[in-house]
Fold this sequence. Notes:
mainly alpha; 4 helices
Amino acid sequence: GxxxxxxxxxxxxxxxxxxxxxxxxxxxxxxxxLLREETSEHSVRISEEAMHKLLSYAWPxxxxxxxxxxxxxxxxxxxx
Length: 80
């Protein structure tokens, strides 16, 4: 199919800049928020070392990759 030309020009006027995850200054808060969402049934703590590694990683897969890593970590983590 074809994309309607009038719709293209309507949407073309809206520009959203979404920085890649590696450039966001609020990564720590984002990680905590996503972790809370993934572990709504129980409280999960994250060590300083783990947080440092998460914050220093480049995240080429952006938010989807981070969410998958946190989901996996939440399933595999211990209660200690």
